[in-house]
Amino acid sequence: MVILDVPGSGPDPAAWLPVDKRCAVCFHVDDVHPSTSADAYEAGGDLGAGALGHVEWLLERHSRLHVTVATTPDWRETSPVPTRKVLARLPWLRDRVFLAPLLPPGTMRLDRHPDFVRYVAGLPRTELTLHGLHHVHRGLNVPAEFQNQTTAECLRMLEEGLSIFAAAGLPRPAGVIPPRYSTPPALLDAMAQAGFSYVASGRDIHTPVAASAVSGESGLRGVPLFRPSLLPQGLVHLPTNFQATSTVDRALQILDGGGLLSIKAHIIKDCLGYVALDGMDELYRNYLDTLFTLLHARYGESLWWTTMGAIADRVGGRGSAAGRQPSGAMSLPSVA
User: Fold this and answer.
1) Could you give the 3-state DSSP secondary structure of residue 214?
2) H or E stretch covering 200
3) Tens digit of each residue's pLDDT (9 = 90 or more) over 69-86
4) Which of 15, 57, 249, 298 has its CA 20 to 30 A from that of 188?
């Protein structure tokens, strides 16, 4: 994919940053939906008594912190891995059936869980973004909802998700974080048609920090890993480059070079024995607490604590407010 990367003009080479900031941090939490501890797994439905309580605690501890909460409008996934083992072994057929049971439609539909909606809508400095529609797909890669659909099919799914957000009384989300970061061209085209401003897809937590580094792991590959970029569809792309297993040194290298530190967490720690390394538990919460304290002490007011939507507004993709394009100029070390 060709990425549009137009250098900024004027005295500040990092045109995507506010004039008084020299680096930025954003934090997003995926898979949030109304499942409670009485269900197969808790994903936010226990409100402050569950995993979202860790997010709320961080927001209370760090007054500059902002959070992007990736919310699925009608979650139907019961297992992230195939449970129908015999079917999973049958070529052709396995790609045409769901390899794990599904929740009935509407079970986790946001507008049917008003207490959950009130809680997430009331979290301070928090934006909600679209995280698929049902978070499930036929075939072996169960959670990767967007795979082989047409643009029209993707558009229908996006519009249904938006209608559920509206029915729940939630603001219209500005962007999409696709489940498993799976972002086929048809989805990007549909997002542009639907008026979204950003997509978060390229996730890479291992590539060394460098100005020219691009994503080579999950989601879109070849997109800048430490700054926003503009896709041909007019969408702003936001990378993910840090999680629970990443080191403090990696965070400091990104920010010292004037980059975007983009931190990710899963709201679900243990899903039927599938343990997420970046699951939001007390241990990860405490690590982030220590990291955020260090970042404020080191960078002070020069660090922009922000959300994906606010960055998209600065960059000026389709549907955003600002009309700017991102800069390619950073002071990160070059690749050897």
Assistant:
1) strand
2) strand 198-203
3) 999 999 999 999 999 999
4) 15
**Per the structure block, which two tokens stand in for 88?**
């999973």
Give the span between the Cα atoms of 286 and 112, in whole angstroms. Answer: 33
Check if the beta carbon of residue 37 is closer than 8 Å to that of residue 318.
Answer: no
Q: Taking a C-beta distance cutoff of 8 angstroms, is the pair 203, 226 a contact? A: no
- For residue 280, give both structure tokens: 């939001």
pLDDT at 331 over 90: no
In the predicted model, is pLDDT for residue 239 greater than 70? yes
Q: Would you place residue 274 in the very low, low, confident or very high pLDDT band (cuts 50, 70, 90)?
A: confident
At 98 the three-state DSSP class reads coil
Q: How far apart are CA 276 and CA 80, in angstroms?
A: 11
Q: Which two tokens stand for residue 5?
A: 């990367």
Count Cβ neighbours within 10 Å for each residue of 257-285 and write b for 16 or more, e otherwise. Answer: bbbbbbbbbbbbbebeeeebebbbbeebb
Does position 13 have pLDDT exceeding 50, yes or no? no
Largest CA distance in the chain: 62
Q: Is 164 helix (H, G, I), strand (E, B) or coil?
A: helix
Residue 117: name the closest of 168, 171, 73, 173 by CA. Answer: 168
Token digits of residue 81: 């891995």
Average the pLDDT over each of 2-11, 130-139, 221-230 and give the range with the smallest value. 2-11
Q: Distance between CA atoms of 144 and 28, rounded to whole angstroms?
A: 18
Domain ranges, ordered by start, for the chain: 23-315
* Other beta carbons within 10 Å of 9: 10
Q: How many residues does the chain have?
A: 336
CATH topology of domain 23-315: TIM Barrel (3.20.20)
DSSP strands (E only) in 91-155:
126-130
